[in-house]
Amino acid sequence: MIGRSSHSQQKGFKAASFTLVTVALLAVMFMSLLLIKPAMPDRVRLLTGPAGSPYHELGLRYADTLGRRGLGVDVVVTNGGLDNIQRLGDEPDNVVAFAASVINIAASPELRTEHLVSYGSIGFSPLWLFYRSDLHINRVADLAGHRLATAGDGTMSDTVTRKLLELHGIADQVEIASVDQANPDKVSDALTAGRLDAVFVSGSPLSKLIQRLLHTDSVSLLSFSQAAAYAARLSGLTTLDAPEGVFDLARNIPPGDSRLVGATTNLVASDSLHPAVAPLMLGAAADIREESSAFFRDEAFPSDGNLAFPLAKPARRYFQQGETGLSQYLPYNVSRYLNHLGFLVLPILTVVAVLLKLIPTGLKIIGKLRLTSLYRQLEQIDRSNAAGQKQTELLADLDRLDATTATMFVPRTLAPDYVNFRQFLHDLRERVQSR
Fold this sequence. Notes:
Helix content is 48%, strand content 15%. The chain has helices at 4-35, 54-69, 81-90, 156-168, 184-192, 208-214, 227-233, 277-288, 292-296, 313-321, 332-386, 391-406, 415-433; strands at residues 43-47, 72-76, 95-100, 116-132, 147-150, 175-178, 198-202, 219-221, 238-242, 258-270. The longest helix is centred in the last third of the chain and has 55 residues, at 332-386.
């Protein structure tokens, strides 16, 4: 029978194997966490617009909200929506951009947009037309022969302005300059001093520039009487109604019901963006809820309507199911490492499970080879005994084998072979002693 020492060795071997596997597993996981970068990004670059523009101000708010949720954001100043689309084509990895639902992509055929997707609309981006009050401007067509300004090439205000002028057939009858939206006083002074006759700008009614122009006495806001026609002719454009006094009840601004047009602001990214970022960005959009929406119509943002590009699959899941998984309970940076840990643990556990199945087989093979060697030694002693070798020498060899094998580790599957070996050794010793 197998002795107590053999049983204790088996227990010790099991404990040692478990400890070794556990230590190896923890070591591999620790090194993997250090050396292998998680698939979920820890930071994204957010392409906004010119410094001081509504898009740039909105980007700063997103950076603050997403930072509290665990995702770092680098706010990047750009030349506007068209520039953002260009940059997404050049550097798509971990980059998100603001872009209006109205983008003149056809004017830039070199743009690569086949890989771009929208993560939803996050708010309205109204188009405002402010003009000098001493001018008789009732419609866009009345701007013929006047000096205009927009926020610059690639911006939503410039894109829509040029399309409206083309629709009215006066594109070649106006002079268009650009203004710095980060300097509201400069824009207002240009209008009041007569250096500009009118200016098209886009953004929230709460932005500094819009507020400055709304409260300048010698500047008026045009109500687009043909707003419905504009929305019908220009894809991505929508009508917006501003009731009398909605922007300032004390000063009754606007002095009457006004009609505006506008686009929606889209979150745009490459289709390679990690899907875990989508619910985070849209959750931030739900927290921020662009202020301009409340002034014009009761519409919930973010939404999956009025998009510049096809809706991304992760965004579609968000609009259908809301936030799911760990992201709705844990900060993003915590779920990021848990996701990374799960990504590593499953393959490692699979390897460990395979090894645990192979180890007994390996031990059985090793034990079988060792017992075979010991049997051969007994057979040699048996032949030497038959040949008349000295009894003392044979007994010494048997004692050595007995001592060697008395405490050796034997897998349970080889227990019968081990018992047979010990019995053979005992019987051979009796034959040598009785010779």
